Automatic annotation (TrEMBL):
The protein's name in its UniProt record: Lipoprotein Spr
GO molecular function, one term: muramoyltetrapeptide carboxypeptidase activity
Keyword Aminoacyl-tRNA synthetase: no
Protein family (similarity comment): Belongs to the peptidase C40 family.
Organism (species): Mucilaginibacter terrae
């Protein structure tokens, strides 16, 4: 219910600001005011303080997918797994192709310490295994988005005891990663 209220409030604010700027011909780019409203909205619903350099597209993508059920091997809103979610996010938000499973994805990153993680970095976990078994995308303030087997796409804290226990490494995509054109 709270999510619905916030979504309605944001839509009303955006529509109101668009109505005030309708008299400007050929306005095709999102205004600074609209970007600021979006950043305020995502900061509130995701509990992440967004800076002037924050990627609104990243937060919009995560917001759109939250609640999508988990499905091993899935890559659609009908069901998705952790690597499918990371793959879709990188394709749609960063126009970059990454691997199709958490271990393949890890092979395409430079390791990053937990304290140096930035929005869009990948976080890897070894859950009940010696091999990497889970991947998520860091969104800031110690939080990451991922597809959980129990709750589907969600936002979690790295500092949560469960995730702390299984955390392996953070990673930033290598500069020579393939771009989708």
């Amino acid at each position: 219910m709270k999510k619905l209220f916030l979504a309605i409030a944001l839509m009303m604010s955006v529509l109101s600001s668009q109505a005030q700027t309708k008299s400007v011909p050929n306005q095709t780019e999102e205004s600074d005011e609209d970007k600021s409203l979006a950043k305020d909205y995502f900061s509130q619903i995701m509990g992440v303080a967004m800076s002037a350099t924050s990627n609104v597209k990243l937060f919009q993508f995560v917001y759109d997918w939250v609640g999508t059920p988990y499905r091993l091997g899935g890559d659609t809103k009908r069901g998705i797994d952790c690597s499918g979610f990371a793959y879709q996010l990188y394709t749609k938000v960063f126009n970059t192709a990454i691997g199709n499973n958490s271990r393949n994805i890890f092979s395409t990153v430079n390791p990053v310490s937990k304290t140096d993680l930035k929005e869009g970095d990948l976080v890897f976990f070894k859950i009940h295994s010696r091999a990497i078994t889970h991947v998520g995308v860091y969104i800031g303030n110690g939080k990451f988005a991922h597809a959980s087997t129990s709750k589907g796409v969600m936002i979690s804290y790295l500092a949560d005891p469960y995730w702390t226990r299984y955390y392996y490494k953070g990673g930033r995509l290598l500069a020579d990663a393939p771009q989708n054109n």
